């Protein structure tokens, strides 16, 4: 029994030594890599534009050669690791799309026509270029004085993204109607719809 205990303790001691060595090795490796990264960053901070372009071109050439010769399995592993990295670091990946996809997206975006009136600049916009005016009322109520209280689609007061960005920063939008940038009144003899009238006024 005593012999078994001694043998067990011996194995536990060996396992402890191996674990300690592994941890120490990992720590030394991390220190070495940190030192290399610091050296590289210092070197790159002082390199000239020409040297940087040469280095990046060399990296791209080497990377392209590696990827051209990699197996399907290696490619799958690389893409999986890249996907995990993107998700971990909240990287937005834009998938490549064809011309047909982009044309379809455009037609969808403009299908309803410019029917949304900005309550600040009094111009007509498409749906994807406006936001509800209540957002600016909540975030910066002091700038509400530049709104016309004008509603359009769904009886909602809308504001274009351009005016929204200015108002959010506590700045006056350059095309705000309240500072005299409104469109002139339509003459009685003009038989034009809302869009035609605005297009004529802009020219």
> Could you give the count of β-strands?
4
Intertermini distance: 102 Å
List the strand order in the largest sheet. Answer: 1-2
The proportion of residues forming helix, as a percent range, comes to 55-70%
Please identify the structural class as seen in this structure.
Answer: mainly alpha
Radius of gyration: 32 Å
Tally of separate helices: 7
- Could you tell me the mean pLDDT? 79
Model regions low in confidence, pLDDT < 50 over at least 5 residues: none
* Major sheet characteristics: 2 strands, antiparallel
Order of helices and strands: HHHHEEEHEHH
Strand residues, percent: under 5%
Overall form: elongated
Any overview of this molecule?
This protein is mainly α and 203 residues long. Among the domains are: 44 residues; 85 residues, no CATH class. Helices cover 57% and strands 5% of the residues. The protein is built from 7 helices and 4 strands, in the order H-H-H-H-E-E-E-H-E-H-H. A two-stranded antiparallel sheet has the order 1-2. It is elongated. The termini are far apart. The relative contact order is 0.06. The model has no long low-confidence stretch (mean pLDDT 79).
Task: Give structural attributes.
203 residues, two-stranded antiparallel sheet
